[in-house]
């Protein structure tokens, strides 16, 4: 909202967190901003949607919850060719592995509630950009609308930055091991993890990040089995958060993306059996045992 005005045009990837879609399609639309949603993986779609009237492009570098990886450099080049800003939600890439700025992004957004805090203690966010953008555009908007975290939360987030790299690298190592182990389960419809060679954007992931991140998605086949599976877990918690030191799992179709129409869920690949799994700092061996036991206990419908 701070970077747009009535008559501006925004192009965004369709695969976004539910609240982001609401802001784009409902809030900005009410203020006369035209929004075009595209398949973030389709460079031709980006090229056709971005016009000289485009003020801003927006996407998640790794989409939530189906973990599509968007080519940051290509989209940035298309946007900058018409003078548009590139704004990227970079939460799943994490500050540790991200190269978003050097790939052409003008503004990077992080939910500090996730990996930066990393312990589920407070709400916060970070907006990174050039001095002109932050001081000239973002700061006046924030100052006059009141969006600011408390001094205590800010101190807590700054302290958490001291251990950010240690935590995230350990989580990524475990995530890789668990994704490889789950790939061999015949009772899973899908195992989606950008660090797996089976991921459609594996090569792009390695070029942009060099690692697959701390989050994966599993499709167990149905909502009923998904709920049985989650309830059978003993270590992994059920919650909508991610990037926490505790391993967390959630069912996007009934939580984070519940408000999306079914047709849109279908388009984005958010099936009834899809689960988003954020890997924590527990023992990789214990987490694997927990996942395997819960999958066994949940069974597969005949």
Walkthrough of the structure:
With 302 residues, the protein is α/β, with parallel strands linked by helices. The chain has 2 domains: 9-160, Type I PLP-dependent aspartate aminotransferase-like (Major domain) (Aspartate Aminotransferase, domain 2); 164-298, Aspartate Aminotransferase, domain 1, CATH 3.90.1150. The chain is built from 11 helices and 11 strands. The strands form 2 sheets. Strands 2-1-3-4-5-6 form a 6-stranded mixed beta sheet, sandwiched between helices. A 5-stranded mixed beta sheet has the order 7-8-11-10-9, covered by helices on one side. Helix 3 links the parallel strand 3 and strand 4. The longest helix is centred in the middle third of the chain and has 19 residues, at 164-182. It is globular and about 55 Å long. It starts with 8 loop residues before the first strand and ends with a helix.
List keywords for this structure.
2 domains, Aspartate Aminotransferase, domain 2, alpha/beta, 11 strands, 17% strand, 302 residues, six-stranded mixed sheet, five-stranded mixed sheet, Aspartate Aminotransferase, domain 1
